Amino acid sequence: MALENITRNFSEGRWEPSELNGGKLCEIIYSIIRGHADGQFPQQSSKPSNMVRECQKLEQETHLPRSLRIQIPRMLIALYEIRNNRGVGHVGSDVDPNHMDAVAVLYMSKWLIAELVRVFHKVDTATASEAVDALVERQLETVWTVDGKKRVLSEKLSLHDKTLLLLYSEPSPVTEKELLTWTEAANASSYRRDILKKCHRARLIEYDDAARIIRISPKGARYVEENIPLSVPLRARDHHGAAPR
To answer: β-pairing, 213-216 with 205-208?
Structure first.
């Protein structure tokens, strides 16, 4: 899935492939809208000869809702411009692939998918956004996925904050065993008593003591967003713009 590739490459600091996949997503979304307008979806997506011109043509499809006719196509043009003329798809640009552009690609891509969900499934924006978050993990520079495990890249965080950050990065409930592995907590009993049960009492998480399943609460998510840095400081990046592994 193009969005999954974008988010995974972004989380690992690979700006160029993340931005390249943004271009692929544009072609997929354009093909979906074009197929919807024509009344027949193509078997596979294709690259239009001129993305800007073809997106502008969609504005003439007056039977389409405004989002499919104007708002999404105009966003596609902006996203495709990054792929083509910001040092990603072609050489000779005045900028190299970089963190700033990758952030733009990531969030435009998530907006585009959420908007498609909203229009085609006739749901509100909150439901559409939640659906996209359920498809992919929250992509946090401070959380690195490696060999099926997750690691928090910030060494300064407490075990309490590492736990909440890891739970925040997951769209689904997490097992106690997974958290023990990811945090490398030294003692399971102490971790359960001092972290999980205390967070549960504070309503930062929901901890099923019997099933050993944990999920972050809305209160816990707000705590993460307001108190824990979600990006790697610039001074910790190498000269290619990627966070150290």
So the answer is: antiparallel
